[in-house]
């Protein structure tokens, strides 16, 4: 099972549709998430695919296509990681991490047994009776005695932390309700905020005018953006009549002062990854609650950390 699972998930990650946006499924992907008016704005057209970019989508320059909830293009699976295969990608990382850990554990056990045939007192956890010199000499002997097994063990030992780190990073992104692509966009926003060039003001989703050509009338997401974020070239606030939202523009200095619309909390974020198409709309009782984050309020404090982790 631990040997078959990584191959199976590798196959699914590589050959399943990552979420390629086509004219046929465009309306479907437009209804998955609302625009957050911070990193995704309505009305943007992909110049290559010539389609309106659905919220959270990105054009992959390698595959030359737009992918829904694009995370990144992964060279290991020769495919994008997106809405369609993100769950398989996480399961690939998890199963590979378990396999390499188990392989390293078995290999070290065999090497240990090998060394003990010569020196019964030797142990993988260095016994105090051995000097570091003797301990390492015998360990090297155990690895070299069966080069094939020794090298595979070393490979498993060295790759295991990398795979667990990548898996942890992806779980952290899920915890923050973001993607690799979005964390880079937030990183850009952080630079603008550090310079004092970023401004926000409220949006009321109940009274906001929508352009039906640019935005779907319905999404399965339970909340809508209650803030608009803009940047200016010289750090002066935008005019009150320009940009989305109403009221005064307020300068934003920190990521924690803006909201990440796509973070519903760790459990719901997991559901969003592992149950594609799940409608979260049942979780709010009336349409009026949309956009009024009360129980579901999440600030972007996590985003600051994810940006720090990425840099
Ligand atoms: Zn495109
Ligand atoms: Zn790609």
Give the C-alpha Rg.
25 Å
Q: Work out the number of β strands.
A: 7
Helical fraction equals 40-55%
Strand coverage percent: 5-15%
Give the number of helices: 8
Mean pLDDT: 88
- Structural class, by secondary structure, is mainly alpha
Regarding quaternary structure, how should these chains be classified? single chain
Q: What's this entry about, in short?
A:
The chain has 311 residues and is mainly alpha-helical. The protein is 41% helix and 8% strand.
Describe this entry's structure for a reader.
By secondary structure, the protein is mainly alpha-helical. It has three domains: 8-85, no CATH class; 88-174; 177-310, no CATH class. Helices cover 41% and strands 8% of the residues. It has helices spanning 4-15, 26-30, 86-118, 132-145, 147-176, 180-195, 266-274, 301-310; strands at residues 58-60, 65-67, 72-74, 79-81, 198-202, 227-231, 250-251. A three-stranded antiparallel sheet has the order 6-5-7. Strands 1-2 form a two-stranded antiparallel sheet. It has a two-stranded antiparallel ribbon with strand order 3-4. β1 and β2 form a beta hairpin. α6 (180-195) packs across α8 (301-310). It is elongated. It starts with a helix and ends with a helix. One zinc ion binds at residues 46, 48-49, 59, 65-66. The chain crosses the membrane at residues 88-112, 155-175. Residues 41-187 form the Palmitoyltransferase DHHC domain. It catalyses: L-cysteinyl-[protein] + hexadecanoyl-CoA = S-hexadecanoyl-L-cysteinyl-[protein] + CoA.
């Amino acid at each position: 099972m631990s040997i078959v699972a990584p191959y199976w998930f590798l196959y699914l990650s590589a050959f399943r549709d990552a979420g390629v946006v086509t004219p046929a499924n465009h309306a479907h992907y437009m209804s998955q998430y609302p625009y957050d008016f911070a990193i995704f704005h309505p009305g943007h057209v992909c110049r290559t695919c010539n389609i309106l970019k659905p919220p959270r989508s990105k054009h992959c320059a390698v595959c030359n296509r737009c992918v829904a909830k694009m995370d990144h293009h992964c060279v290991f699976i020769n495919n994008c990681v997106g809405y369609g295969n993100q769950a398989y990608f996480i399961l690939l990382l998890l199963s590979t991490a378990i396999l390499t850990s188990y392989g390293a554990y078995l290999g070290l056990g065999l090497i240990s047994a090998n060394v003990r045939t010569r020196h019964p007192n030797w142990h993988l956890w260095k016994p105090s009776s051995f000097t570091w010199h003797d301990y390492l000499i015998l360990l090297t002997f155990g690895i070299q005695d069966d080069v094939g097994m020794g090298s595979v063990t070393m490979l498993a030992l060295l790759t295991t932390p990398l795979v667990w780190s990548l898996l942890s990073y992806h779980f952290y992104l899920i915890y923050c309700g973001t993607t690799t692509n979005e964390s880079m966009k937030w990183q850009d926003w952080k630079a603008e905020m550090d310079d004092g060039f970023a401004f926000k003001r409220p949006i009321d989703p109940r009274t906001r005018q929508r352009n039906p050509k640019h935005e779907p009338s319905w999404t399965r997401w339970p909340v809508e953006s209650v803030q608009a974020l803009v940047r200016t070239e010289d750090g002066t606030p935008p005019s009150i009549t320009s940009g989305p939202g109403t009221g005064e523009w307020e300068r934003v200095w920190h990521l924690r002062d803006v909201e990440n619309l796509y973070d519903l909390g760790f459990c719901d974020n997991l559901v969003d990854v592992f149950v594609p198409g799940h409608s979260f709309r049942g979780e709010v009782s009336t349409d009026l609650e949309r956009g009024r984050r009360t129980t579901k309020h999440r600030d972007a404090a996590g985003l600051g950390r994810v940006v720090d982790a990425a840099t």
